[in-house]
Prior knowledge:
This protein is of the alpha/beta class. It is built from ten helices and ten strands. The strands form two sheets. Strands 6-7-8-3-9-10 form a six-stranded mixed beta sheet, with helices on both faces. Strands 2-1-4-5 form a four-stranded antiparallel beta sheet, covered by helices on one side.
Amino acid sequence: MADIVLDGVTHSFAQPGGGQLLVLDALSLQVADRQVVAIVGPNGSGKSTLLRIVAGLLAPDAGHAAIGGLAVADADPRVGLVFQEPRLLPWRTTLDNVSFPLELAGVGAAARRRRATELLGLVGIAGFASAYPQQLSGGMRQRAAIARALAREPSVLLLDEPFSALDSLTRERFNAELLDLWQRTGTTILLVTHSISEAVFVADRVIVLSPRPGHVIADVPVPLPRPRSTDALDGAAYSSTAATIRAYLHGTPADHAAEEALAAPVHDVLDRVGTPAWFDPFRRGG
Length: 286
Ligand SMILES: Nc1ncnc2c1ncn2[C@@H]1O[C@H](COP(=O)(O)OP(=O)(O)OP(=O)(O)O)[C@@H](O)[C@H]1O
Ligand SMILES: [Mg+2]
C-alpha cells in the first residue's frame, strides 16, 4: 500500500535578513493508494516544498508525512521525484543517467543496464540510450528524467510541473502517456501543475492551495471516467470541474461557478470566470 498521509504539515524557511517565512500552515491531505492527485496553487504557495517533504528531502517543522502508514525516511526510496527541469548529468549518457539511482543503490552493472534499457523503452526513448542530454530535445530530457525517477520502482511518483516547458500539443500527449504509464506501473501520483486542464485531465482529485502560507482550500473530485482521451477536455464534466477550480483560485463561491458552467457554453464561462495573470499557461481554445 502506498497511500500518502500528510497531517498538520507546517514549514518555515529562515529569511536572509532574519526572521522566518511561514510557507506551509498545518496542511493535511490524504491520497489513497494508486490515486492520482493534482495540486494547483499560486506561485510561492509551497507546492514544491510540500513535494520535498513527501520525498523526505525536507523535514517539516511540525506535523508528519507518511507513506503506507510509515513515516517518510530521508530521501525515501519509495518515492520517485521529477523536478520542473530534467536535472540530468551532462557528462553521462541517457542510459547512464537513468541507471544512476541504481548505481547509488549498489545494483550491479548488468542489472542496471537491463533495467535502464527497459525504462527507456517504457518512456519511448529506447533509441537514445547512448545520446548525451545536450543531444536530446527538451521533451526527451523530461522523458529521461521520468525514467530515472522510476528506476527504483517507487510506489509514489511526485511530479513538480514536469511538462511546463513543453509546447501544448506535446504536453497533451505527455499527459495521455503519463496516464498510460500510471496504469502500467500502478504508482500513487502527486502532480503539481499550473495548468487546470492538465490537472483535470490527469487526476482523480484536484487540490487547490491557498496563497502562502499554503493550506488546502478545496479538494475537487474529477468525475471523468477512465481510461481518458483528450476528447474528455471538450465535455461538460470537464468544463464545470475546470470552472470550479478556477473559482476557488479566485476566491469566488464555487457552487455558483459550477452551475453557470453547466448552463453556458464552455468558453463563455471560462471568459467570465477569467484566469488570474499568474495562472494557466495551458488554456485551451480562444
Ligand atoms: N530553501 C529555501 N530557503 C528559503 N526559502 C525558500 C526555500 N525554498 C522555498 N523557499 C520559499 O518558500 C516559498 C514557497 O516556495 P515553493 O518553491 O514551495 O513554492 P511553489 O508553490 O512551488 O511556487 P512555484 O509555483 O513558483 O513553483 C517561496 O516564497 C520561496 O521563496
Ligand atoms: Mg514550485
